[in-house]
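Meet the record:
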Amino acid sequence: MSDFLKKIKDMSWEEYWEEYKKIPSAYTKEDLPQTHKIIFGKIIHSQNISSKLNHNKAKQVFVKNIANMDRLHTKNALSYALTKSENSFLMNEKGEELSLKELIKDWSKTYATREHTKEAWHLVFSVDENHLNEKSIRALRESVKETMSMNFFGHKYAMILHNHQSKPHIHVILNKYNFLEHKRLHFQKRTDIKYFFSHLREDFSYALRARGLNYENKNPLEKDLRLAYEKSQNQEQKINTDAQFAIRELYAQFNEKFQKEIQLKRQKITHLQDEYENMKKTHAKLEELLEQYIRHKNKKMFALYKELKEHGKEMSLKSKECIREIKHFNTLHYKLQYSQQKQNEHYKEQFQNVLAKRNFLQNYERLFPRHKGASKSEIQNYYRVKKSLQLSQKEAEKTLKNYSENFYKDLFYENTNLFVLQKQYKSLDENLYRLKSADFFLKEKAEPFIQLLQKNKAFIKECSEKRFAKIEKAVLEKNFGKNQFLLKEYTFACEFLQKENKMKKTFTDKKFPSKSYEKTQERYKNSTQTQHQSLRL
């Protein structure tokens, strides 16, 4: 139980309402003492600045809003989350177990009259673990409950645990209507949402640490970016040199995932079948009682008949749900068999093709060392097989690369445009300024953290220079001048990196009408004026 819940346990209604009003319904900036600074949306002070550098072994906490939904999408999201869970019920904010029908009936009382009003959020709280035992599952569930009670007091929500995947997580469907304040959750600005979710992650990480799970809320820019990038490059090289083994590992992961899902699905089907059998026994008793009422002409038989009819409908729904889960179970079983079959075929193909070619090359080199005694056609065949072996290995490597996605490479290198890089660079610059302008005691403790952010700033600047060289070459040499986005990015980069705009010089040298370039730049400035303002926030 959280401190706030303990505090209100013995309060009167008037005291409780005054205390409740102090809880902000959305994140707002507060005037903090000089020992506090907001860095990357989090409050930093002299007591916790050193812990930011000492928590190297702590994992990153994950909280995300994946959808803002109307009433139909809310029902679909709840139904989907239930089909993937091992239980057939939802848990509400009071800890009660409800069916989907009961929850929707309760929530529909507060729905707006307009059909497409956004009624709910779909939140996901996740931890970076392969699998959780019962104690850790209880810790995760209690941490989510505490975080929700601290930040969404007065809101109804439903929780569904998914523990069948490599990263266990809890789906929370939040009703945006506050039944105490009688208004819906609303934010004035996007920055308010950003700070609110940072605060939410911070609370979730505190709750997890209090229950023995070592997690923290860390912005990606607070990590050592160069070290992370070099690590990703080493992993890429390892993949390239060991492609066959990596593909085998991917198939093994597929099989393990399907086996886990099959096991959980089997448990859920057993649970549903037990519920259905109990309902059948109850239905048989009701039929027997109805026969007695009819025989004795008891007036209660009409009410009992109505109850029996409703019970029959519930049995039918339960039967359909059970059949649906059995179909899903059969689909998962088929996928597992198919994956295992393809894995075996992959082994055979790789061993047969690669080993046959390698054996041929080894035998040839023993028979004809340095091609001595080999005819011209035999030497040509040797090089054909050697080239074929190299091509088959490269093809396997290309196939594997489609599965691998690396956050740092995508975020900070070739595939990232300079608009994003400049935004990251400016964010680091602003947070460094706040730390440097702090009081002496906070600044002294934050010195190692400042050095880390300065390294990240230099790394992003280096990536920006590389990206600029690439797009400048594309614009000038490959005649991409008609690509409006690339032209905008190049002009923006010249301003950001303080480079000479060679595109303008090219227009002048070719004696194009002077208005042509000026008009292009005017269109660019008008279209990006809003974007510049958002980047300055």
Summary: Confidence is low (pLDDT under 50) at residues 24-37, 396-412. The CA atoms of residues 73 and 120 lie 9 Å apart. The longest strand covers residues 169-178. The first helix runs from residue 3 to 7.
